[in-house]
């Protein structure tokens, strides 16, 4: 949807000299305020509309020439009849390729879901050897995740953009870097620190190991109770022995859970120099 707030006349603020705080003399203009969508931001000042976002949102033909290299992402600005474009070059995280390789080695099916144009997404997908979808709106990402879930997959997503937020909430599990927008972090199940992506691999490793240990403890508890409780009921063992055995069961479960702190052999991962021990969007089978 679109949210409306009282407008602010921001004209001329960009011409002010930086320095001591100044009163800008902003004017309330009820009813024609700042409109925000996941595609961009629009405002009306002095009867002239200004828009910042994608080409379609700003009413600019998709074939309009941009700036920068052919693979750059474009952020358009339109004020009345004047337009400007900001070229944003796509740069992979230093450990992005290693993270994708590690996830594939663990059996995960990885893919890119991006709102950028294909010319910007395709080179990144080729570098990472991943299938991709470009030009996706938030609703498109949600639909893609729902299709994967309907096919029986458990879906995990990693994202940091504003248009990733709805899909992060839709995924079975989601992660976001600390550098993401606040609203994006709020929708993620976990937020990882640092500039690298290797914590994503570690999160999956820890989760899978914790689940395995939990299942082992549950199985041990069920088997123990099926065997020990009837013996205690029919008096085969004394109450003292039963109490000692129960304590031993609890200790065994606790010690098994502590194995989660022990290092576990994992598929080899080539970490770049300086990488922390341990977007793309990731779908897990």
How is this structure best described in words?
- With 285 residues, this protein is an alpha+beta fold.
- It has two domains: 3-88, no CATH class; 91-285, 3-Layer(aba) Sandwich (Rossmann fold).
- 36% of the residues lie in helices and 23% in strands.
- It has seven helices and twelve strands.
- Helix 6 runs antiparallel to helix 7 (239-258).
- The chain starts with a strand and ends with a strand.
- The model is unreliable at 1-16, 29-36 and 269-285 (pLDDT under 50).
What is the number of helical segments per DSSP (H or I, 4+ residues)?
Answer: 7
The CATH superfamily label of the largest domain reads: HAD superfamily/HAD-like
Structural class estimated from helices and strands: alpha+beta
Characterize the largest beta sheet: strand count, sense, and whether it forms a barrel.
6 strands, antiparallel
Helix content: 25-40%
CATH fold-level assignment of the largest domain: Rossmann fold
Overall shape: elongated
Given as residue ranges, the uncertain stretches (5+ residues, pLDDT < 50) are: 1-16, 29-36, 269-285
Distance between the termini: 32 Å
Which range does the strand content fall in?
15-25%
Strand adjacency order, main sheet: 1-2-3-4-5-6
Please write the CATH class name of the largest domain: Alpha Beta
CATH architecture call of the largest domain: 3-Layer(aba) Sandwich
Radius of gyration: 27 Å
Overall pLDDT: 77
Total count of strands? 12
Order of helices and strands: EEEEEEHEHEHEHEHEHHE
Count of distinct structural domains: 2
């Amino acid at each position: 949807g679109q949210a409306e707030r009282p407008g602010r006349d921001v004209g001329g603020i960009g011409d002010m000299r930086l320095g001591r705080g100044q009163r800008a003399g902003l004017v309330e203009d009820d009813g024609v305020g700042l409109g925000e969508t996941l595609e961009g931001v629009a405002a009306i000042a002095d009867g002239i509309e200004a828009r910042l976002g994608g080409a379609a949102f700003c009413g600019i033909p998709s074939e309009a020439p941009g700036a920068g290299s052919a693979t750059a992402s474009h952020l358009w600005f339109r004020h009345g009849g004047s337009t400007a474009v900001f070229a944003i070059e796509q740069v992979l995280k230093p450990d992005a390729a290693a993270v994708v390789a590690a996830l594939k080695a663990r059996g995960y099916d990885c893919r890119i879901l991006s709102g950028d144009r294909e010319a910007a997404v395709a080179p990144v997908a080729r570098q990472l050897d991943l299938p991709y979808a470009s030009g996706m709106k938030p609703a498109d990402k949600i639909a893609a995740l729902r299709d994967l879930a309907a096919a029986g997959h458990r879906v995990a997503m990693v994202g940091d953009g504003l248009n990733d937020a709805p899909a992060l909430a839709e995924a079975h599990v989601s992660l976001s870097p600390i550098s993401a927008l606040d609203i994006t972090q709020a929708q993620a199940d976990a937020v990882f620190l640092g500039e690298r992506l290797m914590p994503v691999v570690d999160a999956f490793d820890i989760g899978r190991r914790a689940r395995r240990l939990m299942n082992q403890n549950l199985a041990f508890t069920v088997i123990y109770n099926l065997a020990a409780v009837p013996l205690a009921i029919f008096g085969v063992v004394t109450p003292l022995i039963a109490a000692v055995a129960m304590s031993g069961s609890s200790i065994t479960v606790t010690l098994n859970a502590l194995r989660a702190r022990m290092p576990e052999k994992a598929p080899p991962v080539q970490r770049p120099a300086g990488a922390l021990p341990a977007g793309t969007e990731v779908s897990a089978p």
